[in-house]
Amino acid sequence: MDKTVVVTVERTVRHPRYGKVIRQVKKYKVHDEGNACRVGDQVLIVESRPLSREKRWVVERILKRADTGLPVEGVE
Questions:
Q1: Under 8 Å CB-to-CB from 64, ≥6 apart: which residues?
Q2: Is residue 43 within 8 Å of 59, Cβ to Cβ?
């Protein structure tokens, strides 16, 4: 899937009857024009026109980069 990332949105909800806190996860297929996103990045997505059968969201910007553990270029 070129130019596509899967964004996971997690939220917590309290069960209406039992009061238990439940974690709900929803996945969105999001268009990433420049293939700039990496695994673990926090991104801001916005709704757009349908780009394919399942894509209706676009990455607006990357809020926080993930720590990949790779060495930084130019530093030894």
A1: 41, 42
A2: yes
pLDDT tens per residue across span 25-34: 999 999 999 9
Q: What is the reported pTM?
A: 0.78
How sure is the predictor about 57, in pLDDT bands with cuts at 50, 70 and 90?
A: very high
CA distances from 40 to 17, 18, 46, 54 (A): 34, 33, 18, 22
CB 63 within 8 A of CB 35: no
Residue among 19, 28, 32 nearest 59 (CA): 32
CB of 48 closer than 8 Å to CB of 58: yes
- Domains defined along the chain, listed by start: 4-64 (2.40.50.140)
CB contact at 8 A, 41 and 60: no
